[in-house]
Protein 1
Amino acid sequence: MSNTTVLEFERPIIELRKRITALLEIESDTGSDLSASIDQLRRQAEQLQKQIFLNLTPWQRALLSRHPNRPYCLDYVEQLFTDWLEIHGDRAGFDDAAIVCGLARLNGRPVVVIGQQKGRNTKENLKRNFGMPRPDGYRKALRVMKLAARFGRPIITFIDTPGAFPGIDAEERGQAEAIARNILEMATFEVPIVCCVTGEGGSGGALALGVGNRVVMLENSIYSVISPEGCAAILWRDRAEGPRAAEALRLTAGDCLRLGVVDEVIGEPAGGAHRDPQEAIAAVGASLAYHLDALKGMSGAELRADRYERYRRLGEFEVANADLAVSETAPAQ
């Protein structure tokens, strides 16, 4: 994957790297010793990168989560899993390419892998519908998850979608029901489920693959009920207010970890996963293996209860009226 897309806040780093490349070419062509200047620029680039990436805003992380050179689901499949066998179709006449499903092995362990898949060019994005599944995709995913439950295989999901497709055809075929059905069914399976947010975790489109015993996120991924632009369009009638909405949504991996929405934040290579996809994929693989190992000693009933308790713990509430609180807890007369 070539790194051709440069985000605005990355430009100072890229400019320094271009100067380093130019000096290396001059050194090679002329035989001059420019090592001191090259080393100085490398230190500057490293220091600048640390400074920028330690202080990223939620909006900048949202932009990183969408970077077209980040690893996608099939990249993880190719590098982490063996014996991959893709399964197609929802058995109702459709096969949504925005979700890929299949049987595989992770470190020799039989698993089922399900994930949203984006494209890297216009043709692929049209095929994959920009990673926005229709109900057919969620029904295909559910069919494969039921297969995993029947044969006792752990389920691994990769979440990377702006959201479920909101088109008329998707609504006509029951988009909301398909998402709700997946959430309901995933809560009941008696096999380990580990969910990984690798890019965008958008709205119900993400939740339909997100009910797990463990949920992990890459450092520069996001997880939110709505995209920043969508939120801004609703609240301020202006999608350009996306950066403002991103601050309010608490959508970063750090926010989600503090709120208990996810169980682990997986560190990314310096400069983001798109700068070193192989390192990012290896880190995800180590995390998946760790969590599956932690869950393997639990019975089916314990796995289901663990998943239930995990989601019951999410969120907080306060009773504003003390008298009401007393009356609610008092025994019936």
Protein 2
Amino acid sequence: MARILVAGETIVDFLPDSTGSLSAVESFARRPGGAPANVAVGLARLDADLEFWTRIGGDPFGDFLAGALSERGVSTAYVERDSDAKTTLAFVSLGEDADREFCFYRDRAAETRMEPGTIPDDDLAAFDWVHFDVLSLDAEPSRSAALDLAKRAREAGATVSFDPNARPERWREFSYAESAREGFALADVVKATPEDLREAGFDGDAPKLARAVCERGPHTALVTLGGEGSYAYATADAPWATETTEATHGGYDVDSVDTTGAGDAFTAGVVAGLAGGETLADALAFGNAVAALTTTAAGAMTALPTREEVADFVESADLDEDVGSRE
């Protein structure tokens, strides 16, 4: 079984009790979150062999997150606690269609203080796959830490995956577009939405966007399309392709309750599939199933399904009918 390392932030999401603007919301439910943390938990729920490198505050919110990761089967071997920093908080607003926007509280937060070299070369050599995302690149020293990790992982022969997860409200000191392209240059696999890629300066439909990403260095690009499914493109350099390969999957019709974390769930599913030796098409379908099932319950990390739940979902799903929602 491939051994996977995920790196990046773990934060607290506050989900509203009603749709609409945050200015009108009166109460929130606290949930563990953060894109890399969601991916790590998603992989753990899918029985992957993984470790997660993150840094959380020494405050009560950090206690909450450390417990949430442990309860969901994520090893705490590389979970750092920072007694001199707070844990990032994100307040989420939900639209009528379950889409969301974020308001972050993260000035000098613990996750921005991840340091280069924390994962020694000898430890890193034990991993077959390393995943990181662009949100580690919006502050120092976490920016240098993430780029250093990706560079050393690739030099060690690991497959490196990258998520250019655009959050315009997060970018102040550094450029999102330049940071995304730096990530592309160090990655083998990129998962993105069309919006992520347009914010990075690319244009076109999913096939054109995927090819543009691969021209920057990766051999595989996966473009998620919301309710329309996803598209994947791989060059002949990809381990799962002997020649240039394309795959599409139309997704699953479900009654979405909350789309928070759906992209992270997709990433976890695709990484689990590709790292486990599946074909590009099969991994794409599996990622769509994990993402669709995640949207049928509230929360991001708390809604991530097990491998058995995904198998049952795929078996029972009718692409022409709504599957329903989970409690």
Protein 3
Amino acid sequence: MMRQAGRYLPEYQAIRAKAGDFLSLCQNPALATEVTLQPIDRLGVDAAILFSDILVVPQAMGMSLRFEEGRGPIFPDPLRDAAAIAKLTLPDPNTDLDYVMDTIVRVKDRLAGSVPLIGFCGAPWTLAAYMIEGSGSRDFGHAKTMLYTQPDLLHHLLDQVTESLTLYLNAQVAAGAQALQIFDTWGGLLSTPAFRAFSLPYLRRLIGSLNKGDVPVILFVKGGGQWLEELADTGAGVLGLDWTIPIGAARARVGDRVALQGNMDPGVLLSNPATIQREVQDILLSYGPGSGHVMNLGHGITPTVPVANAQAFITATQELSGTFHTHAEVAR
């Protein structure tokens, strides 16, 4: 589940309180390891997802970052001109982000091969949008202003972010990550011409620059259903889908070029186990027989989800999915 080590688990709340704040939790390898492992122990999910945040990379590039209750991430000094962007540095992931690599090593040791570990990062456009805006936003007006009035400056920033992310993901693989997910959370805010100019080329470059070997790359563009064919040509092995496109329709469009991940509306987890099981079955039926489907939510799990409903989602998937695969072997 996306954002699986979330606030819905009471165990997470206890460790968050121990850490003091969200960023301190991300930067404490011992506690981040415990949070990464909690869904494995509690729910029996089929993979571990590294506990971290996409915005640790801009912080490592030299930006001040804090998280505020009720507001989320804040960059007090957003990038609004060339002088601010010129102050950014290229981070060394093994020193500037060593706590992430330490967490990966610790988690891999604790997992002892029981399930794989997924690392991740934000996409270049999504990170740049936060860095320019200074916080989350409905429309990212400052970022779009730069896009349309200073496109060369935005391209310069995207170059720097892409280079930093390449180093970061390659370091995650070297530390032991067995799959990688790239989140373009704000890609869907762009028009098609803007997406093709300011997101897609940098996604292709990032994926093409990874020393990933046999480590699969999952690419998730929220609101990106209209670009599936182009996303399937980025080099990613898996496309994550939000809940706005039927997974069967997506499969018909991309064929066997990529696997698909998704795509239940996280809001379904606020209902009840019977409804959750029905929705899981509907998604499996939509995808149809055969391999190449990773069941997942269509975006991050929300903090008010009852743990029992999260468990119902996992249980329904593991009980129902075997009949849809030609080589029916369901883990766990």
